[in-house]
Amino acid sequence: MRRTIFTEEHDLFRETARAYYLRECVPHSEEWERDGQVGRAAWAAAGKAGLIGWEFPEEYGGQGIRDFRYNAIMAEEMAATGAVGIGLGLQNDVIPPYLMNLTTPQQKARWLPGVISGETICALALSEPAAGSDLKGIRTTARRDGDEWVIDGSKTFITNGILADLVIVACKTDPDAGHKGISLIVVERGAEGFERGRKLDKVGMKAQDTAELFFREVRVPADNLIGQEGRGFYHMMGNLPTERLAIAVAALASAERAFECALAYAKDRTAFGRPIGGFQANRFALADIKAKLQVARVHLDGCIVALFEGELTAEEAAAAKYWTTETGWEVIDRCMQLFGGYGYVNEYEIARIWRDSRVQRVFGGTSEIMQEIVGRSLGL
Fold first, then answer.
1. pLDDT score of 375
2. Is-contact 242 93, C-beta < 8 A?
């Protein structure tokens, strides 16, 4: 179906994004998968192409454009080109509300130019070994000592953890105040006592570095606090709908890419003297997938417009994340089945898509947490 949510400016941006992924990322996919992280040159190239931080003010190098449709295009083109690893979604979808809405003019001037240029790679350190979806349970602490914060604790499952130059860390600044004692503090590369742990060996998304972080008496300036002291939990909750919609967009884009791969394979691969797509079981399976993707696309485009217009609720974002990631996984798994034994061979793109997509039902809040959010909104 023809999509109607984009303008000519969006179409031009899509061309730029596609050219960037094909030129700067796709040729390095195998290398990045092997190394477990993306080369920093790709980040700088993204910044030079205007593909990072477009919503930040022009005075810092941004474009002053706050429009999630551009974020959606980046995720869609990454999947469509088969690019892997680079965490531009985190840099563009998750980080901006923190650095845009919670920082002072001095902090913006200090951090934003590097973020926009791709020289400063960001990470958001929320999850801990004993606290994932339940952010109220974090144990990392920060105590005030004169003009400094002193941070102790650890984080895990941190995207861009190895490459990050600027890490937004959720800390308990008042351990006795529960969720009202959480604050957000920026830790920068080189801070004494800040250590990277092991790069986690994941099932999928192998090119995207995910790491453990350790903070041992890490001292940072008092003005590295962003937002209000004790309001960190509320700041995080306010940013989750955008993050969850971004995951939904990426999930659907991956499923659409898997369908393209499966359809091409079904037309090319023969068995018993004819293309496998000609067998009714496979033809019906592909028809079922096509219908599911079509429905998902219309729904998700509606959510994208609602977010752009400031009308998307937290419950609607949770529902979109839940349904799209679950349906996307179902689609991708069925597409992989059409490849038979070849689908389980890593040199085939479908195998990577399958591996990489499984976590979408987990990060940003598990499917069960999404169901809980939607269920509570029903008065149950």
1. 96
2. yes
Q: Residue 326: which of 261, 380, 263, 374 has the closest Cα?
A: 374
Alpha carbon distances (Å) from 151 to 129, 145, 179, 219, 233: 17, 10, 17, 7, 17
- What is the DSSP annotation of 145-208? ETTEEEEEEEEEEEETTTT-SEEEEEEESSGGGGGGGEEEEEEETT-TTEEEEEEP--SS-TTS
Between CA 245 and CA 68 the distance in angstroms is 10
* Active-site option among 243, 256, 260, 326: 243
Q: Which pLDDT score, from 0 to 100, does residue 341 have?
A: 96
For residue 267 the two structure tokens come to 């037309």
β-bridge mates for residue 185, sequence order: 169, 225
Give the whole-angstrom CA distance, residue 250 versus residue 93.
Answer: 11
Helix (H) or strand (E) segment spanning residue 11 = helix 8-20
Residue 243 annotated among the catalytic residues of the structure: yes
Is 217 within 8 Å of 183 (Cβ atoms)? no
Nearest to 70 by CA among 84, 50, 87, 85: 50
pLDDT at 130: 82
Tokens at residue 71, please? 């974020």
pLDDT digits (tens, 9 = 90+) for 137-146: 899 999 999 9
Q: Which residues of the chain have pLDDT under 50?
A: none
Interatomic CA distance for residues 69 and 92, integer angstroms:
12
How much is the pTM? 0.94
Token pair of 263 as six digits: 């359809």
